[in-house]
Structure formats: structure tokens, C-alpha cells
Amino acid sequence: GLLGTVLGMIQSFQELEMAQGSANASVLAGGIWEALLTTAAGLLVAIPAAVGASLLSSRADAGAQRIEAAVSELMLIEDGPAAG
User: Fold this and answer.
1) pTM over 0.85
2) CA–CA separation, 13 vs 28, rounded Å?
3) d(Cα 31, Cα 17) in Å, to the nearest integer?
4) Angle between helices 2-18 and 25-79 (to 10 degrees)
5) More confident site: 33 or 81
6) Are 42 and 4 in contact (CB under 8 A)?
7) Does 52 map to a domain?
8) Band of the pLDDT at 64, cuts 50, 70, 90?
9) Does the pLDDT at position 82 exceed 70?
10) Where are the alpha helices (DSSP H) in the chain?
11) DSSP code of 83?
């Protein structure tokens, strides 16, 4: 992902430096291709992971709300009818 992107760009700039500023576009394209490929791979992993984390968080929140409601109901039952 991000590391591959950075490494690919470093490779491209190293090639540019070794060519003393007049590098062939095909030489630079290799590093840029690597950077774009690793960025795409990182996104393919990150997007489903973020969606999954969001779904799990929503389920956990819903479960916590159900537990809180059940505990509140049990506390009302334990207190019995209000004297009045």
C-alpha cells in the first residue's frame, strides 16, 4: 500500500537522478507503475476492511443498546410497583 507507493516513487526519482535529469520516460514509468500498483492493492485491502469495521461497530453498538434496555427492564422489575 503506502510503503510500496513511497518505494516506487523513490525508485523513479533515483532513476531520474542517475540520468542527471534527462531520464527516459520508460525508465521512470517502472517506478511509477510500481507506486500505482501498490496503491491500488492497498485500497483493495483498506476499503473492505473499513466497511467491515464499520459493520462490526454498528452491531456492537446495537448489542450494547439491547443489553442496556434489558438491564433497565430488570431493574424496574426488581423495584416492583411504585408506592404512591
Assistant:
1) no
2) 8
3) 13
4) 160
5) 33
6) yes
7) yes
8) very high
9) no
10) 2-18, 25-79
11) P
7 half-sphere exposure, CB direction, 13 A CA radius: 8
C-alpha cell at 16: 531520474
Domain count, the chain: 1
Grid cell locating 9: 516513487
Host domain of residue 54:
2-79
Cα Dmax for the chain: 92
For residue 37, the one-letter residue type is: L
Backbone angles phi, psi at 81, to 5 degrees: -65, 145
Q: Is residue 43 part of a domain?
A: yes
Instruction: Record the cell numbers describing residue 3, joined without a space.
Output: 510503503
Domain contains 36:
yes
Q: State pLDDT tens for residues 5-60.
A: 888 888 888 888 787 767 778 777 888 888 888 889 989 999 999 999 999 999 99
Q: Which three cell numbers stand for residue 67?
A: 443489553
